[in-house]
Structure formats: C-alpha cells, structure tokens
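Let us work through a complete example step by step.
Step 1: write down the sequence.
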Amino acid sequence: MSRETISQSISIVHPISLSHGKNAEVWDTTGKRYIDFVGGIGVLNLGHCHPGVVEAIREQATKLTHSAFNAAPHTPYIELMDRLTAFIPVNYTVSGMLTNSGAEAAENALKIVRGATGRTAVIAFDGAFHGRTLATLNLNGKVAPYKQKVGVLPGPVYHLPYPSADNGVSCAEALKAMDRLFSVEIDISDVACFIIEPVQGEAGFLALDIAFAQALRRFCDEHDILLIADEIQSGFGRTGQRFAFSRLGIEPDLILLGKSIAGGVPLGAVVGRKALMDNLPKGGLGGTYSGNPIACAAALATLDAMTDEHLQEWGSQQEEAIVGRYEAWRSQRLSPYLGRLTGVGAMRGIELTSTDGTPAPQQLTQLLSLARDAGLLLMPSGRSRHIIRLLAPLTIEPAVLEEGLDILQACLKQLV
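Step 2: predict the structure and record it as tokens.
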C-alpha cells in the first residue's frame, strides 16, 4: 500500500497498517495480532470498539449525523454537557464547551483567560505537551520536533521546571525558579494563567509534586492568576480516578479534556468556572464540528462505563500488575538498561538508561522493534525518547495484560 500521498512530516512509530481491533488487541492487514499498549496514545481507555460506545454511535448515526450546535442546537450536546459538568469533581458551578480535540480545547482556554483577565502572558512548564496548533506549540516545553522551522510563535509564554519525584526536580527548586522568573523576566500583574499537566504525558509520565501544586494554587489565588489543568491524557480514569488533579488536593479554574472522552471518536472540551466560561461575547466560542452528535453519543456511552467503582478497580488491577512486574524485574536485574518506573496509577512509564544513568534512546528504539515483532505495540516518550509509555486500555483482560508484560519482559532481556 503506497503512502506517497501522505505527508512525510508525519512521524510513524510502528510501520504497520492496522485492520481491526477489540479491546486491547489489534490485527494488521496481514492478519498478525498485537497486544496494544499504545491505546491510540491515551485515547482508548475503554479499548477498541467498546460495545456500549459502538452501539451508541450506531444508534445516533440513524438519527442525526451532524448539526452545527451554534446554528441549531441538538440534544446529544446538551445531554453530554449536563453529564460531563456533573462528572467534574469540583465544588464550584461548572460550565463548558465542546471542541474537536484537546489542542482546540487549549486554544479556546487561552481565549477565555485573556477575556477574563485582560492579560496575555502564560506560564507553562518544561517537558509539557499541549498540542500541535500554533499557539499550543509555544506552550510545549520541548523544541524538537514541534517548534522547529515554524518561526515566531504566539505569546508571551514562559516556562518553569516541572517538579516531580520522577524527574528529580524538587518543589523548592521549582518555587525558586518561579521567584526568579518574576524577579527577572515578567511582572506578575501581566500573567493571565499557569497551564500544567497533573501528570505529564509526552515527558514520560511524570507525576506533579503535590506540595508544589498546592503552593501554585495559593500563589494564583493571591495574584488573581488563573490555573489551567491539562487533563487531556491523564483524565477519564487513566490514574485510577476521574481526573488526576484530585490527587493533588486542588481545584483548577479551567480543565482541558480530550483523548479518552469519547471512546475513540474525536472530541475535546474546556470546562471550568461558569463566570470564566461565560465572559466572552456571544459568538466568541463555538465551531462547526465542535460537539458533533455522533461524538457526543460516544462520550455519553463512555461516561456510562466510567463509574468510580469501575475506574478504581481497573486502575488498581493495572497498577498492581505493572508495579509488581517492574519490582520483580529490578530484583532480578533483568536488564542493565532498566531504569526508573514513573507515573501514578495505571499511567506508568519505564525509563531505559545506560549504566551511568544517562538516557538510552537507542535501546528504546530496539525495544520497540523487538516488541512489535513479538506482537506488542509500545509508545516512546521522554525528552530523550527513552521512556516507554504504557497505555493499555483500562478494560484490558488480566490474561492479555499479563501476556503483554511477558512479551515486554522477554524483550527487555534481549536489549544490547
């Protein structure tokens, strides 16, 4: 199958062509089976072709395939926003809008905070990933490949170190860098918002330091700065609870949603304090496809499946399996390249490092190939592309999860 008609600027991790999938298993066009630990890069927390989602899509497609909500509202959008805002675990009144993607949610959030504060500056964090659109590129805490060759980006945006036990940056170090930023680079009164991931995804599943999160919330309150939590990858059960910000003991002002919100159908959202969401003039928010009826139906079915009981059970089972295997591998000294286990809950990464502790990206590239040949799909991450990102569906059958971990174990042992 020729790929000459596809832009060569799109990077492909696995050079295969998938045909179909079911829960945590996929098959390529040659009929080869794989266990999927990529999950559409965090989109498939409910797995491939979840029966409830498929049925919701099928039923909605017989009723209404599209209506631009800002032209003529439709019931699935209204029902979803009622359910979604009730699903957000905060103590204030929540309002929001639907988008086509997480990046579009981030773009709209920037408009919302500008309108609410009259300020333009944004503080983001090293290692961050918030999207590939022009404004979100500047939020990303990594140049290659996202910011290369695209010139001056919308701003102003400043970056701080991301404090996490997973990367060795302490709360004190991050707060010291923040103090320097406001002493040297920018006046606090010019800052509209901070945007932060409770668990960084692209950086290799780094869990935010809880003390820093709470200090940041206090700082924002003291200086009338808004706090945006990007839950696009960490949300909808990835860490074993609805959203990862809950473990931090804070409530963000705006929350970005996407990926697993609709079981594989493109959809995103920005939700938060109603006064913020309502501050722009009529017509300031919206979009032709935003909140498409079929996507809304899929999201409603997704919320049906994501009860707190299910999320806790799925997250605990996957966390116990991954942590148990990792600890066994470390005690057995399975591979000299086996580094730290990062992340929380079922949102886990495994570092590959050399004996001196430096990143080992060549070994990760080798691991991707070995695992794929053995029937396991893995996803790389980390600034040096040296961390395996484990994103198996939360609904993965225990036997299939163990089979996948068996393959990973065998391949780690083969690294040279």
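Step 3: interpret the result. The chain has twelve helices and 17 strands.
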